[in-house]
Structure formats: C-alpha cells, structure tokens
Amino acid sequence: MEKSKYIWYNGKFVPWEKATTHVLSHGLHYGSGIFEGIRAYSNKKDTYIFRLKEHYDRFYNSAKVAFIKLPYTQKILEEATIKLLKKNGLKDCYIRPLAFIGEGAIGINPGSNKVNIIIAAFKWGTYLGDEGVRKGIRTKISSFARMGVNSFMTKSKISGNYINSVFAKREALLSGYDEALMLDTDGYVAEGTGENIFIVRDGVIKTTPITTVLEGITRNCVLSIAKNNNIKVIEQKFTRDELYIADEVFLSGTAAEITPVREVDNRKIGKGKPGKITKMIQNQYLEMVKGISNPNNPYLTKI
Q: Dihedrals φ, ψ of 121, to 5°?
C-alpha cells in the first residue's frame, strides 16, 4: 500500500496523517462498522472506477443489516469518491469506504454515538500478489470454520465479522501457505478469507451458492464472462476432496481480482499452474475493468 495525500472524512478532504479517530470509538472496540473494496483502472487513454454504484449499493445494504444509519446519501459518497481520486491524482488504485460508530457509549449498545464515514484511495497491488496471479497460489483448508449464517450476516461486509478471516489468514501464512480456504459449519467449501471460490471440472465451473457466502461483485462478473463464453456454471455446495481433484481452482474478489490456485493442502491442482478457463476469465476480466473490451460498459465510471 502506498499513502496518498488526502482521505475524505465526514465530508472533508483531510491530509492522510490527520485522518484519525478517538481511541474509544465503538467500532474499534466491537467491530461496529461496515466497509467496501472498490478498484479504479486505467488504460492508455482513460481511468475508470469499476462498478462504483454496485459497490455503494452493497455498502448501504450492509448498513441496513448492521443497524448503522449513514449520515450521507449514496450520491454524495459516489461523487466524493470521484473527487478523491482526482484530488489525489490517482489512476490505478484501491478504494476503501468505511463507516463506523464513533465515541460515546462504551457498552455493547452504541446508543446515539455518531456514525463516521471515510473514503480512502491509494495504490495497492492485487491482494495475493502479482506472482500469485501469474503462477497461482498455495492454499490450505483452515482449521477455522466460516461462521454460520445465523452467527454473522453473509450479505454484508461488517467489520467485526472479518476477525474470522484474520484468524484463518494468519494461520495459513504461519504454516507457509499464501491463503486459507474455509469450510462452512456443515463441512462444505465456503470461500477464501476475502474471496469467492470456483472450481473447474471437465469444462464446467462450480461455485458455492450465495446463501452462505458474500454476494461478490467480482463473482458476478465471473458468472457473466462464463455465460458469454458458453461455459456451464453450477452453483452448488461441494466438498474439500472435490477441490483436490478439480482441473482448475481460482478465487475472485475486488482486491484479489482473479487469482489461480495451484495447490490445496499440498495437493497439486491439475497441472499445478493456471488452467485454460482460469486464464481466459482473467484476461477478459482485465479487459472489462480497464475499458478495453467496451469503454461504454455501464459498469465503468469515467474519471
């Protein structure tokens, strides 16, 4: 991550170092916040934010689920995001909106504590590394199960929920892997620590239904790309051993983009390198987000 000059904080553009909050903020103690991850991409001519509206749609849905009343309209936040990129002179970058409950009541119930909103934008490479995107990553099944649907809300990016992912991620890294894959409470494959998961067998793509995982925006792009290329997709639960015998495995997410998996639990996936379908989806996804395949794509917001 590379620092930028300004962060939008409660309606003002604040220098990076001064975008601070009180140590007794409710969100810091209890995870009572929501966030999004958005990316902007550039080609030789233009810069675009990818699916800006859809990300803020989910941001507001997360707020509804989390009982957080946002003090700004969606239009204001979308416009603030565009202005922030221009003010920071950013092109290819990652964008992080965050709303969190501030100081006041210190108990579990935040009462009437103020809700703060920030939008940060900065240069940041793909979540699992450029080499991982090119060659594929090594993963392990985590000993931490993805929390059940009645323990956390799968349709929202609530800050506190992600401690589950933090545990799984750190365990994987300390064990010498690049990423953790998590099972649900019934023992079926759920997702990565911050990504949706796909397998390919005999030319067919299979992915976990959204009933138990985040309704990923990049996931939705993968489904569209597959459909446009006449590739069958099945949304169905599957077991860890089906991962082992898959021809291809890949992860999707705004931060991770399309990342191939070359190994799961010390078992080589396919030929141990990104497969044909994975590479096709990678290429078409990048052409989409950069406005190369269609600069008039309604998912692109020109800066």
A: -140, 135
